[in-house]
Design brief:
alpha/beta, 9-stranded mixed sheet, GMP Synthetase, Chain A, domain 3, binds 5'-O-[hydroxy(phenylacetyl)phosphoryl]adenosine
């Protein structure tokens, strides 16, 4: 694997140096040339590519081949509003299909499966990525896209879908809607789901698995690199195998940029060693994880990354304390009677200039109809848990079941009203 990766890396550096003026300048400024890449470890000599680089080169500044070679383009507006694009040659499409085929195979998918694809189709990579991957393994694809929950449930029942692909929050929402309509989600016959595109927790996995009686697999990817298919879980359901023959991972200390040893937590950086259309060298994903040292029990030899811990940039700093929304979710899911639906609202007082965080938490229907005293107790319990787990005081507001807006795509968990 390492010699394949090295050969591909060397070829990549030569290609971008020759074909992408942006990279030639960047490498010249860093004082490195393609000849300096003599081993795989020399990758660390190369400069990083950041989201800001994508912004300044938008739309076509990173193209490494003539436009005629490009067969498809995807784009993500991202949470920060910066448009990022990915332009694929036919070979890039093939690698993407392969990455997604491995992803679905990781979930046990075969040509005998009926994959209901409820990721959004269009510029977002989720819909078409899962679609191509399902076709590559010979499965039957139902390209329903996201939304229209009633129809989703109808198709599941009529077409006997066996695998669902969508965001984890939408999977929970669909189960909730099914029950509302008097349909038992576990009666619909799904057996697995490939969920990603947004942060979720181990506890949320348990909720989804229970609600549908399925196995829920974590899948990872990002538009800049290829879309979904970068890394995927196998039957062991611990860590995501990186398709590192296409997308080479490193973990760095986000503050110093130094490469960290395997097992240490930091920012995931990816180099697209086979990419032709819009190749990226040492792209800083801003996603926080670590590389799992141990070999996987499933027999695959590709390295795994741990379930994501959050992003360096959705890091909320509340009164000086660093908090990832995923930590809040994690703490919340350990408490009985609450639903995995929450919203964090952060604001700064005009008088005191101090941050205030309010956490809206949905209570499950049984607990909600209880006495006010019980509600008060539950509220206090959540506040105490937040204080002990996160080290900050968060005001908790219990809200009615189903009152937090649901999303058919990526869930919105944070409203940051602070103007700093
Ligand atoms: O979300 C690609 C994708 C589609 C992945 C479908 C998985 C399934 P973007 O819109 O560019 O691409 O967003 C990428 O989403 O940097 C992570 O912060 C986050 N993300 C993706 N997968 C996961 C996951 C798609 N499994 C950004 N867990 C990434 C946590 C995830 N966060």
């Amino acid at each position: 694997m390492r010699s394949l990766q090295f050969a591909r890396l060397k070829n990549l550096v030569e290609r971008v140096y020759t074909n992408v003026p942006f990279y030639r300048t960047k490498l010249d400024e860093a004082g490195v040339s393609p000849n300096d890449i003599k081993t795989l470890d020399d990758l660390a000599k190369l400069p990083f590519t950041t989201k800001d680089d994508l912004r300044v080169t938008y739309p076509y500044g990173l193209l490494a081949v003539p436009q005629a070679e490009i067969v498809e383009i995807h784009m993500s507006s991202g949470t920060t509003g910066t448009p990022v694009i990915d332009a694929y040659t036919q070979r890039d499409m093939d690698d993407w299909f392969e990455g997604m085929a491995r992803t679905l195979s990781g979930a046990g998918g075969t040509r005998n499966d009926i994959v209901q694809n409820a990721y959004g189709y269009g510029l977002f990579t989720g819909g078409l990525g899962a679609h191509y991957g399902a076709q590559r393994i010979g499965a039957t694809v139902i390209p329903v896209s996201s939304g229209n929950t009633e129809k989703q449930l109808m198709l599941m029942r009529d077409f006997k879908s066996t695998i669902i692909t969508c965001t984890p929050s939408y999977a929970l929402y669909m189960a909730e809607q099914a029950r509302e309509m008097g349909i038992d989600p576990t009666s619909l016959g799904l057996r697995a789901g490939c969920f990603g595109a947004e942060p979720w927790s181990e506890n949320m996995r348990k909720e989804i698995e229970k609600a549908w009686n399925i196995k829920a697999y974590d899948i990872y990817g990002l538009t800049e690199i290829t879309g979904p298919g970068v890394a995927f879980e196998c039957a062991e359901q611990y860590g995501m195998h990186v398709n590192e023959d296409f997308w080479y991972p490193e973990i760095i200390d986000p503050a110093t940029g130094k490469v960290l040893p395997e097992g240490e937590k930091g920012e995931l950086v990816i180099t697209t060693i086979t990419k032709e259309g819009t190749p990226l060298i040492r792209y800083r994903t801003r996603d926080i994880t670590f590389i799992i040292k141990e070999r996987c029990g499933c027999g695959r030899t590709t390295r795994r990354i741990h379930r994501l811990f959050g992003r360096t940039d959705d890091l909320l700093i509340i009164r000086g304390v660093n908090v990832f929304p995923s930590q809040i979710e994690h703490a919340l899911m350990e408490i009985q009677h609450v639903e995995p639906n929450y919203l964090i609202i952060v604001d700064r007082s005009a008088q005191t200039h101090l941050d205030d965080a309010e956490l809206h938490v949905e209570v499950n229907p049984e607990a909600f109809s209880d006495e006010t005293k019980d509600m008060e107790q539950l509220r206090n319990k959540i506040e105490a848990t937040m204080k002990s787990k996160l080290g900050i005081a968060i005001k908790v507001k219990l809200v009615e079941p189903k009152s937090i807006e649901r999303s058919i795509g990526k869930a919105k968990r944070v409203i940051d009203k602070r103007q700093i």
